[in-house]
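User: Please predict the structure of the protein below. I'd like the answer in structure-token form so I can feed it into my own downstream comparison script.

Assistant: Understood. Taking the following sequence of 408 residues as input:
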Amino acid sequence: MTSPLRLCDDYLARDGQPLISEPVRSIITGRSHGLPLYLDLSVMRFLELRRTGRTPQPADFDHDFPALVSRTLSDLTPDERHVLRSVSLLDSFDVPLATRAAGMTHEAAALRMIERTFVREIPFTLWPFHLHGLVRSTIRTADDHTDDRWSPADWQQAAQRAFHALGEQWSSGPDRDRILLVGALRQGLALARDFRLELDWLTGAAWRYISDSVWEPLAPPTPATAAAAPLETAADALVETLSALARRQHEHRARTVERLAGVIDAGQLPVELNEMAVYYRAKAQRDLGLSSSPARECSTSPTATAAWRPPPVAVWLTSPVSLVTFPPHWLPPTPSAGRAVTIVSAETSGGPTATCSAQPPATPPPARKPKTTASLASARHPRLSALLSSSAPAPVRLPTKSTSPTSS
């Protein structure tokens, strides 16, 4: 079996001829412990030293991996170092995102930086460039002896810039671009959680994510130092909420109830996102036979009765109902929160479970052609609709066998 050091020597040779002198090669192979990433950075540093007209010496490479990364940083221009530190906060990026994350108005530094060998590229993806995870963590944690090294406040500001750059790309992109939505959410949630940022655009993105009922995994990896940390910020609570919803098809419903109950009890989410957790907890409880109506759970939650009091949406029913299961995000909300559901029954027998707060119109709404299942599903979404601009309740007629409702 070929030894790792022999493989390193072969890696640093071309056509059997060494590219680097034997003393330098010995230091590099001994320090690398067979790690190809170390070899890549060493070769890059060797070529950079030669480009400046200096002959590389063994002492230039007699360092462990963090020190080698620090030496590599010192070989970059100040603008390139600034961009590199900024993108080390991101899982992946493109040139415009790197430029915005660095707070620059021109792309020259980002274009030079992506030509470096430590930047990896996967073509034909949303954000094609990325750094190796070990390089990212080393840049953020290793001792940096450059004159322009960053303070903790600089890292916080960089996280804010990267977070808002992701939000701008998502909000200005195609309205139904699911790949962009999920990618922005994954990176935005990690930044908001790790740097304790406000939710900002994540609120709208979270509602858009659940509106399609497609549950791609979103939760970023849990930091090793916070494996059992409580939900201390709104970002912590949103990460846990979306993770619980995405995992509920793979976990027992009791586990979903437990996770969402923890989110609700923490009280960190704003009102409209808390209603999301309340509804899906009630839905999981109903699956377990512990609750009869998710809508009733939402209407009796503290946030719904105390703070959540926007104008109602009238839903006209032309047949008796005994169970109301409208999720809050199916209904058009007001800009500040959402709308409560007002059920108006066409018959008195077996009436609805909700109390009427509006009277039916004098003239019944005109009969409509019954909608198909597909059309009903599309009518539920998106959460933000044209009804936002109307302050009056908007009647919605449900397809039933009867066509002439009677006043209740």
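That's the full token string. Confidence is low (pLDDT under 50) at residues 304-361, 370-396, 402-408.
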